[in-house]
């Protein structure tokens, strides 16, 4: 478990669309744009599955994923890595559905991916590129 810094939390909160990467068990990569990718605690991100196909299949085979954080309003860029748990019922799932319905009524909110943050890496070009930050 890794806790994001205040600067990292601020950067993640400014993301409108978050690129989320997964890989199948055989290593085949997949990356998708996610509109609901929200930090819910210092070490946990909620990712909402509205229309996932390959991403969800990958996470069922291989629970590792990464979120790329960069944008015009963000200083620098970094990659958050972690492990996923897929939730399709219960209080946490219902809380997520309520959040989605308040922001975008009509989206299916089929499942909740709970990402536990394990690592954060530098993504800016230069000598520090790829270095572990947390």
Automatic annotation (TrEMBL):
Pfam families: PNPOx_N. Transmembrane segments: none annotated. Gene3D superfamilies: Electron Transport, Fmn-binding Protein, Chain A. InterPro entries: Pyridox_Oxase_N, Split_barrel_FMN-bd. It comes from the Archaea. Residues 4-121 form the Pyridoxamine 5'-phosphate oxidase N-terminal domain. This is Pyridoxamine 5'-phosphate oxidase-related FMN-binding.
């Amino acid at each position: 478990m890794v806790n994001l810094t205040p600067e990292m939390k601020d950067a993640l909160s400014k993301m409108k669309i978050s690129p989320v990467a997964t890989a199948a068990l055989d290593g085949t990569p997949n990356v998708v744009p996610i509109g609901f990718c929200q930090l819910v605690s210092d070490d946990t991100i909620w990712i909402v599955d509205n229309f996932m196909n390959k991403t969800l299949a990958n996470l069922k085979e291989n629970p590792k994923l990464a979120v790329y954080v960069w944008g015009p309003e963000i200083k620098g860029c970094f990659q958050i890595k972690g492990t996923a748990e897929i939730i399709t019922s219960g209080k946490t799932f219902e809380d997520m559905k309520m959040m989605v319905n308040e922001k975008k009524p009509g989206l299916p909110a089929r499942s909740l991916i709970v990402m536990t943050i394990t690592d954060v890496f530098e993504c800016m070009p230069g000598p520090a590129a790829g270095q572990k930050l947390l």
